[in-house]
Design a protein that fits this description.
- The protein is built from four helices and six strands.
- Helix 2 (33-49) packs across helix 3 (113-124).
- It is an alpha+beta fold and 180 residues long.
- Helices cover 42% and strands 18% of the residues.
- The protein has helices at 2-5, 33-49, 113-124, 133-174, and strands at residues 11-12, 17-25, 54-60, 68-73, 102-107, 127-128.
- It is elongated and about 85 Å long.
- Strands 3-2-4-5 form a four-stranded mixed sheet, with helices on one face.
- 17% of the residues are buried.
Length: 180
């Protein structure tokens, strides 16, 4: 939960943002890596702080296809209307449902995820969420635990290597292993 509440993408979107849609390929080849990272790392944080904003993802098999992020806006007066749910009836490509006033598109292909996120936050006039003092203490504790864990892992690996070496020497002294 700590990683969802804090970090890049933990922002409150402007109230006229109604929907965010990502469209990219399943595999990361041909420039779809940044789009996938946005989907996996940043979209959960955005959704955590913006539960009323619909966020959809379409992953296609076409590696040569576009990697785009579309932001759908509505006027503040219409913001109280519910977001229309996708229907199985097809609309003309590129047409907007009546509830959306305008859209903005961010091209994600061959772009780093941090650049995509900064464009999204700038475009939507999002306000970053500042971690609380308790969250800062918790993050510091987690980082200290990770550092201590890494030190323990290195120390344990050295100890186990020493034990293996001692065991090999004892076996060699007893004549249990071939020295050639």
């Amino acid at each position: 939960l700590h990683t969802i509440r804090n970090g890049p993408g933990a922002s409150i979107l402007h109230k006229d943002v109604r929907k965010i849609h990502l469209d990219f390929a399943v595999k990361i080849n041909d420039g779809h890596f940044g789009a996938r990272k946005v989907w996996r790392d940043y979209l959960p944080r955005l959704k955590f702080y913006n539960p009323s904003v619909s966020m959809t993802v379409n992953r296609s098999q076409d590696q040569n296809g576009p990697a785009i992020l579309t932001v759908f806006y509505t006027s503040p007066a219409a913001a109280s209307r519910p977001v229309p749910q996708p229907s199985s009836k097809s609309r003309a490509p590129g047409s907007l449902p009546a509830a959306f006033d305008r859209t903005e598109v961010i091209e994600m292909k061959h772009r780093h995820e941090r650049d995509i996120l900064s464009d999204l936050l700038e475009l939507t006039r999002a306000l970053p969420v500042v971690p609380s003092a308790d969250a800062e203490v918790e993050l510091r504790q987690i980082n200290e635990d990770k550092k201590r864990s890494e030190e323990d892992r290195v120390r344990n690996a050295a100890y186990m290597e020493q034990k293996r070496h001692e065991k090999a020497l004892l076996e060699q002294a007893r004549g249990l292993t071939d020295t050639t």
